Amino acid sequence: MRHRGQSGKGTRGGQGILLRGWTWWGLLVLPLAARAQGPDLAPLDVRFEPSTRKVLKGPVPEHPARSLAIEAVRNEFVGFQVVLAAQDSPVTGVTVTLTDLSGPEGAVIPSSQATGYREYYVEIREPSWCETPMSTACESFPEYLRKPGWYPDALIPFQDPYALDGPPNPVGAPFDVPAEDLQTVWVDLLVPESAPPGDYAGEVIVTSSEGERARLPLALHVWDVTLPRERSITTAYGFGSGQLWKYHGGPDGGDPATRERILRNYEWEMHRHRIDFTNQDAPLRFEFDEQGHLRPPDFSAYDAWLGPRIDGSYYPDGAGIRRFDLDWFRPGSGLGSWTADQWKEAAAALAEHLQEKGWIDHIYLYSSDEPWLPQNLASGTIQRIHEDVQRLRDASSLYRGKVMVTGPHWPDLDQDVDIWCPVTAMYGDAYWPAGVWWGRDEYRGHLDRGGELWFYVCNANFPALMGYDVDTDIGHEPRLVKWGAWREQATGFLYWRITYWQDPDPWHDLANVEGFGPEYARNGDGILIYPGDGNGTLGTGVPLPWRGIDGPVVSFRLKQVRDGLEDWEILRMAEALGGGDYARSQVELVYRAFGAPLDDFFDRQHRPWEMDDGPVLAVRARIAAKVQYLLHPDRYPDPEGPQVADPTDTAEEAVAESPGEAVPEAPDLPEDRPDIQVSSDPGDSKDSGAPDPGSDDAVFGRDVAGDPGGRSSGGGCAAGPRPWGVFWVPLLLLAAVPRRTPRRR
Confidence band (pLDDT; 50, 70, 90) for 40? Predict the structure, then answer.
């Protein structure tokens, strides 16, 4: 296990953190400008940490980083952390502010583009398991073990981002730092699309009730690249509103306008993190006449709901959703109470309407969840999916290319599935014995035939698989797993639920041991946001660890997911511009596989993915430089030249290798620069006018008996103890191995 006091390669050294490609534009050296207000101030240590590193409770890192250099493309969020450690006495009324960032030729990135969060620490007493029937050697790999301790996850906004009117409402700041303890602040900075490329400089200012405590210099390099607003990657992240009204809108959830506003806040916040909900609750009914024939459907309410979300006018950034689960005619759900003819008539009518509106390419059909599970195999789920897909294609050819299955390739569905979406543990040799599941070589044929590949992570993501666990000190796992998805040629990523809150305390009970069993109940599984509890009703009577807000409280892990999706878009840009080979060669320096069994054959010298964030950030910088060069070859050098350092070099080594490189001067800061509070910009808060989506009373979504549009009871993770433990592993292997195509080596 990495000791928190040790520095990561390539990011930490002496008085600064370098988070970009140091050899490309030079190491910007900025002096520490800490100011003490008098000898009686309680000691407060202030330093930086990168966004990719979790700062656990305990000793602060041994080498303080007093300056920070970060990089970003335009229209991208870039985060960093400020660590505040009190010594012998508490420090009260602490807050962190950011000045405007001054750039080339008078350009300014205003501090209003930044959002500050106080990182909330939760104590994990029962860590997520490592030992499983398939991997019994975890004690030999302590660096992968999940451990008890205090972990940062929930991010409490300094100011209420969902307040509609009036002055900013403080929530997460000011705050106190207890004696002999630390508090971490996360800062998000959105680089405007209009920002000129080049170098910017500003300051991070820390104050307390006793006055100003420190001024630390911040440098930002903006690449001459703009992240597109429209998303090219499908995200299917499950959201259920069933428990929402325990924490918002009062005891009964409030009137329709209140519910609409709160649901909008949740949807907008996830959209701001480049994530689309799996489902859209667009209202639609199909009715049949006395002879059993379909009456002309009324699509007006359906269109009023979907149209603004697809064209982007519903969202503050103007970007539309990429794709969504149609939520009708789900393969595997059967006919319900309809006849086969009625089913086909309705399916054809909906497909034709979607085609007419230009929306057909925005849908996919989520088949019965995880049909490979033994209980689903036994109940005939595979056969039902096959029958429904054939009926669907008979109804309309427009549904071709739209059928998605959460699971690894299964031969009996070879001709039915358009989008395979395996959990990363069931891809290649990531966890199961070699040859059991398809990997890169086998899926290539499916992709060549026009199919798609997505991935998901779930409670099966044991070490050394990358996942979304809270109780790991490797902060960048959720980010790097998106790089792996791109490398495997995926076009989408699914997550079964983001609101799988546990009663009675969703802020601290982060694993459903009763539902999944101790082996599969991972801390944070199904939870990427927390209920803000705007009314303080707390339907459970548990004290709220922050002041309530009418929307979600986001998490450290959600920020990593967002950063990974932004990286994925940049990787796709590189490929589209002809730099795919270079991007793959760089990604392969830090990603080789989603995981590997922790057994006697585990190769410590060639780990499946890089555990140190320094090389990851260095690779990210070089890929951004490559995209910049491909867009503007007449203005910028090609990073494939010899001047690029190896990503495993330290910052000091990289600078030593290029002694003749000029160090640019930091732009002068205006003397009258405003010290503006780090704030949140919730965007346009006017009413959307969207119809009432209603409630979702089931934990996993609504189950509508007899309704072929009804949702299945899961989304990439089955509830209840996982049946594929010791007893089911041999049966799954017997079911799978005879059907596998021999792996090509």
Answer: low
Place of tokens 């056969």: 383
**Side-chain-facing half-sphere of 273: CA atoms under 13 Å:** 29
- Give just the sign of the alpha carbon dihedral 596, 598, 601, 602: positive
CB atoms within 10 A of CB 368: 23
Q: State the CATH number of the domain containing residue 174.
A: 2.60.40.10
Per-residue tokens: 669: 């800061």
pLDDT at 372 over 50: yes
DSSP reduced 3-state for 587: helix
Q: Is the pLDDT of residue 338 over 70?
A: yes
Q: Are strands 91-99 and 675-677 parallel, antiparallel or unpaired?
A: antiparallel
Closest CA to 316 of 277, 272, 258, 278: 272
The pTM is what? Answer: 0.86
pLDDT in tens, 238-270: 999 888 888 888 777 889 999 999 999 999 999
Provide the H-helix boundaries in 325-365: 340-357
Residues with Cβ within 8 Å of 576's Cβ and at least 6 positions away in sequence, in order, are: none
The residue range of the domain holding 38 is 12-224+668-677
* CA 453 – CA 431 distance, rounded (Å): 19
Domain annotation covers residue 27: yes
The bridge status of strand 552-555 relative to strand 530-531 is: antiparallel
CA dihedral 114, 119, 120, 125 (to 10 degrees): 150
Tell whether 213 is covered by a domain.
yes
Sign of CA dihedral 544, 182, 66, 476: negative
Give the span between the Cα atoms of 84 and 96, in whole angstroms.
Answer: 10
| Mean model confidence pLDDT for the chain | 83
In a domain, 406, yes or no: no
